[in-house]
Description:
Chains A, B: This is Cell division topological specificity factor. Two copies of one chain form a homodimer. By secondary structure, the first copy, chain A, is α+β, with helices and mostly antiparallel strands.
Amino acid sequence: MSVLTFLKPRGSSSVARERLQLILAHERAERSETGRPDLIITLREEILNVIAKHVTVERDKVQIKLERGEGVSTLGVDIEFPVDAISKAKPKAKRAIA
Amino acid sequence: MSVLTFLKPRGSSSVARERLQLILAHERAERSETGRPDLIITLREEILNVIAKHVTVERDKVQIKLERGEGVSTLGVDIEFPVDAISKAKPKAKRAIA
């Protein structure tokens, strides 16, 4: 998945729509155990759940690409949504990584 | 933040270390309300919390870049970690976006 094709700017037609794009790349070590669950797949659901808490997402406006290469797994998510789809509430999140 | 410089491949020196890189770009609509909290900042903490649930992260191995441009806000996260830092448990996550 070429990063650039994924993050290509949108046409200016949809003025009242916004776009969220996410790329998650996991570069694995040579001797990482093959049996271990793929980190990207583990993270994908929970990250999508975080996004869905803050943005009302229409299923057909979500593109998800997952690629597992030689030493790298890559997840690409592209979500388009109307301006008012973002929830106003400012949630308080405990910080795990400072 | 140029996507390419962020996702540049690591040197092959650290064979037993892995790397997780995330880029989150939010393309805002021209008339989105200025008073609204920045979506990227809202999502940043919760996504980092999701990652920290599955990877034991050393604080000094986490790089976070946040850029707010004309119509786009971009978050870049780069985490390096040892092979055994990934938790083995395979959590069951409810799916919000299919």
